[in-house]
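Hey, I'm writing a tutorial for new members on how sequence and structure tokens pair up, and I'd like a real worked example in the thread rather than a made-up one. If someone can provide the structure for the chain below, I'll link this post from the tutorial.
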Amino acid sequence: MAKITWRIWLLIILLVIAGIVIFNWQILYGKVYVKSIVPNSSAAQAGIAQGELIKEINGKAINSIEDYSNALALLKNEAEIIVETENGTFRYNSATLDFELDNKTIRHVSGNAEIAGLKEGMIVESINNFSLETYTFSEIKEKVEPKTKITIKTNKNEYVFLSTNNIGMVVSEVWPTRIKAGLDLQGGARALVKPERALTREEMANLIETVRYRLNVYGLTDVNVKDVSDLEGNTYLMVELAGATPIELQDLIAKQGKFEAKIGNETVFVGGHNDITFVCRNDASCARIESCNAIEGSESCRFQFEVHLSEAAAKRHAELTANLIENTTGEGKSYLNETLDLYLDDKLVDSLFISSDLKGKVTTAVAVSGSGIGKTRLEAYNNAETNMKKLQTILITGSLPFKLEIIKLDSISPTLGQEFTKNVIVAALAAFVGVCLIIYIRYRKFQLFIPVIITIVSETVLTLLIAVIIHWNIDLASIAGIIAAIGTGVDDQIVMIDESESKAAKQYSMKERIKRAFFIIMGAYATVVVSLLPLWWAGAGLLRGFAVTTLLGITVGVFVTRPAFADILKIITKE
């Protein structure tokens, strides 16, 4: 029996390690995980954390997104809704109110509420005998919408709470491997951004941290922010967002997001933690759309939310208002003669009257407002919500330390990403089958054909192992690099087989023939390495995936699989 050499054992051990590392063992404990939690939602208040694996909902096993959706559908618990309006009383059964209000005016209606006869523009007086004079719409909604007892069992704990149909969780299926798919394969938006000037390492690190924080605060997940450079030495910022739109990405990073509140020409406070200690978000009691009105053929909605200032900022506010003059309006309200002007990126977005009661006083609570405009009231309302969310994000994170220019903006839909994946897999399998057939036709020896196939698969698996360890995302360029590495590997194996089978080389021992083959292989390896190095910087790093995976693949091949293949050849030829 032929002796298995240490090189072959090394290959076997590495393949076993690859199987252990690449396989996502979490899938054995659950197939659906919590991707994100909506702040202040029922799930958040119950204590469910991001990343937990969902096993059961109300006793129903959860093994897919479809199971999760079906389980939530079973939670639907309808109740009678009685809406008193100036136009009469409307009754219907529903799990949700199915309409939204601006003050007391219905701005959007759907579902059973629309079927019952409610229409946009109607003035609502009460809902289920809860008067809008006494309660806010959010408070009534909380009281009226029926809640169901929900029991969610995860890999960490069992949670029992009451909730409406919307429990406030975003879930995703657990991927069977730990291989990270790049933007090309999962869809999203990518921006190549250039700072206004050359940055030091420290400045770039600060910029990356600020951009990542801003995107996370805005609510975007799967954020990848890194610095890249081109062959000319220019440094850029690469921002990738899975599942995001290019408009969101452009709005959040193309503008510096410098927020200033001024009285006259003096700055009272700016965005960021130094001046602002709290920004109200996701709480209708202190962050809401105030009103909507028609303006010149379009609609405008105003938002307002509360912020808390630091002691230093509050003192500046007191100092700047101490000497202002009090003016009284015709309605009997008293305001100071200067307004609090809000600037975003040096543009005036709103001016707020300052009550005379605040003159010279140190106050930490300030209301910030703005507006959104649209052709319809619904569009204006949605734009106001978006503008409020952006302004809240900027106030929390502060301005970006440098102005940024978007050089390139790409968008890939998830559907297109799936199509890319399918096409690449088909192309790779076709190439694999083609190589196998050519090798078999060339040598007509089954004992040579099998080791070549095993080596090709081994190189691919070990390349993916390293990609998982270094957290490298596999995108289309990376897959092309793996295919290129496999092609190089097949070339090297053919060189070794030809050397071992050549009649002219029979005058040398098998050991000498393998040495001759490895001389050619190492020369080719050095050439490929040198030729691939420029691709690390070319195209501002967009070709880096191809360069990395090709280098990983051929390096694994030259130092692990080629030596093992050479020993297998010796065993097969019995030399």
